[in-house]
Amino acid sequence: MALNIHHVLGSRLEPTFCEKIHRLELHDAVDEVPLPPAAFEQRELRVTTRGGQELAIALPRHEKLFDGAVLRLDDDGAIVVREAGRRCLRLQPRSIGDAIELGYHIGNLGWPVRFEGEVLLVAMHGRAENYVVRLGELIWSRRVGISVQEETLGG
Predict the structure, then answer these.
(1) Whether residue 107 sits in one domain with residue 52
(2) Residues 121 and 145 reside in one and the same domain
(3) pLDDT averaged over the chain?
(4) Domain region containing 51
């Protein structure tokens, strides 16, 4: 049975949602709806989340889907829209100290991230080199492992 969605609750980056979603991510309780950019213009669509939940989305005219849109949020979990097919910078700190420093830098830069275990994924809007330069010594000294990955609709 499909879950009916009639409103976007807000952005995952809003302070009211950010902390709660982060806590849910740590418990693997955030499901994602991967959408190609063209789908963001649609008001009505049926989609399946990565976790297999079927959604029937019917938004009012004044609302739009976007990358990071929160469709469901409660104590048991969340459903968030993600842009499919975008490139992400995959950052893996080598120690707890490196993770703290990396988090500090990324927080100051205001980059949107998501977590996959001990790995940070940063959505890239441009060349990877531009991001590497901003992290400087953490990357060059190999305190943080780095790679680029393409997110796809299937996974």
Answers:
(1) no
(2) yes
(3) 89
(4) 3-83
